[in-house]
Fold:
Amino acid sequence: MKVKVLCRNPQDYLRQRTTDIHKVPRNLDPALHPLEGPREYVRALNATKLDRVFAKPFVGSLSGHTDGVYCMCKHPTKLSVLLSGSCDGEVRIWNLASRDCTWSFVGHEGFVRGLCMNQDGSLFVSVGEDKLIKQWRYPGAGESQEDYAPVATILGKSVYLGIDHHWSKPVFATCGDRVDVWDQSRSEPIRSFSWGVDSVGCLGFNPVEHNVLATCGSDRTVALYDVRTASPLRKVVLEMRSNSLAWNPTEAFNFTVANEDSNLYTFDMRRLDKALCVHSDHVMAVLGVDYSPTGREVVSGSFDKTLRIFRVDEGRCRDVYHTRRMQRIFCVRWSLDSAYVLSGSDETNIRLWKAEASRTLGKLSGREAVAREYTEKLKEKYKHHPQVRRIARHRHVPGMVYRAAKEKRLVTEAQRRKRRNIERHSKAGTVDEPSTKKKHIVSVVE
Amino acid sequence: KAPGTTQGTPVTRMQVYRPPLVWQGIGDRRLKRHLRKGEKEREQASRTAARMELLRQEVVGGLEAEGMEQTRRFRQEEIAAAVPVATAAQYFNLCLDTFGPYSVDYSRNGRCLLLGGRKGHVAVVDWRSKKLTCEFHVHETLRDVQFLHNEMMFAAAQKRYLHVYDSTGMELHCLKQHLLINSLCFLPYHFLLVSASERGSLHYLDTSTGQLVAEHKVRLGPLRCIAQNPHNAAVHLGHVNGTVSLWTPNIKTAQVKMLCHRGPVMSVAIDKEGWSMVTAGMDALVKVWDVRTFKPLHSYRSPRPALALDVSQRGLLAASCGRLVQVWRGGLRGRSEAPYLQHSLSGDGSSLQFVPFEDCLGVGHSSGVSSLIVPGAGEPNFDALELNPFESKKQRREGEVKQLLEKIPAELITLDADDISKVEQG
Structure:
């Protein structure tokens, strides 16, 4: 007879010394892992609950300004540097790692309306209520704050409301009663655009197509210009005015505007008649917007004292941040390592938040990283199950926001129901309900 | 396959069949891209999993007859003489004829053996080293014993009530809601102790919280015969009118009732992957059924009605018919003509169970307990993150905490185990 019986040598399965790790042989045969579906579901549910337990996004605040923080500017090459301008004319340079102010000076009389830096971070420009454009050198080590003065000052004819720097040339553009494109060395604008609007509130250069400029005007338009030509490209008229604008750093033709009607609209500049996505979760005017360096997500700060993070292709927000101490948010920024989000608000503080609320800061060990990847995938796989969705979606918001959102929901539901009733009781084809992506757009002008 | 050659788990066992996705009906480009990416990832994952088979250390056992020999004529003593000394010690007989027919149960990782004699003798023993963990007498009738999630706790169905003991023999609970229990069964991933009573009621007890999750009045007579389907955690009950019914805790009536035998059903067993069910009736037939379609596959004649049945991890079927224990190889998927192994006990067999991850079969009979060597019965390569026969105390404790955290709620038990991953159409 030929016989072979299972005979395991314990030495192959036990560790030799107490300082060794335990031996863990694996066999992925599904016969040894029954009930895979329910077990994964329970793990996904636990992972979602733990996500909410560990969701503590607030990292710290930078305080020092004596009036509301109106604008912020990121350093293009240094992650820990942030510039901020406040409503009393003070400009501060912060170190985000140690969360203290390294440099402060009075830039303007009145609001500092805009700050921008050139592409290597050696020079920055500020504009203010006092109709001045000031160019400053980024302070190096060993400089004294007493004799810190601008490199150049330009006096304009009207109040400037915003500024942005070109991504490759030594050129910047300001907006106020019209859009001016300036060269760093000249004191007269090299080009001016004015397309029938009395004031332009904000503007932004495209980070990929460097010569394209987008502006938001007070006549509810979003206009596109090419700085090489003298005439504008096209503009889209929305229902309400846009307060802020941000270009997608990875998709050259997409940009998002933050609108007064508490929505954010993402557009493809080639097709302005239809929004790519309408992000609607805020309850009051949205004042600031910025893109993540990955180009997949957007942070927005609103008058309703909350900060929301949206995915670029989704209409509802992924997360909402708020604190009792944080009042109206004027400007938001997403740090260039895509890990943090900054908000500058009315009560003189700049707050630093984690972009992913339950993420551990710092380096994860190998096993932690693997476990994290597994739980992320599980949560994504089971995210449609009602229990998992209920827990993942649950966020506490301030009472005012909750009540306003509830009312907004009731109103939109009622409107939708009435429109549907009209459609149902009319002759087929006579009533056409416009899609959400199109209905907020009034017209496109070439 | 000849024993000693490359072990026989084919690559296809790892690749779960999925019907190919149809791309035509999907207009959304983003969704199509997402699904295609998912398909590629799945394919890569199954290929990586199949490659991991290289890391498996052990090879499945086997017994082959040469020339005119027949495997069923080999006696245990001959087999024990032909295998290494350490494995030969797996064949032993415990002569315990005072306290009646014995029920046997092995812990989930195959380390500990629990014996319960009908007249009240209980012992927990590490069967490899023959070290006695605990031994005591309950001084009343003991009908069934069952380990809970690990070897630290076990349940004993005594004369009137259900008792739960610690591994040191200390009584932890006396559950008075469970009256006159005949047989027990434990669902490990749900922490549910299922007990079938003489009064015809089926109880589901959550052993982690102590809550009685469900109590079903079966109304088909006394319940004597119980088995669980490890694939979907459904409970199969065999009745005196020849039917087998399938139960889940969330539905008050039987999910399925199958007429299996002419005469009472003596024993039920289901294979580990949930493909086939084996039933033995008073009509001395052992029938194999496809449990997914509920259709009969084969039937075998046994010399006596088989009072106990078990299916091993590798698909071997063991039946104890009177004093004879018969093991059939390949008898589930296809029909096999003759038993693989046979053994004569010194008493009438009352209970049997294959030892997980070992080529060993434990049989409880009226004169004690025997352990038999059955080559090719056990799964050679275990997954230490599921069940580890070599676990240390710390690994056992941490494993217990993880099991509790991942305990599946009883509401999720359905006959279709994949139900939760499916999407309703329309």
Summary: The interface with chain B takes residues 1-8, 10, 12-14, 22-43, 46, 313, 384-385 of chain A (CB under 8 Å). The mean pLDDT of chain A is 93.
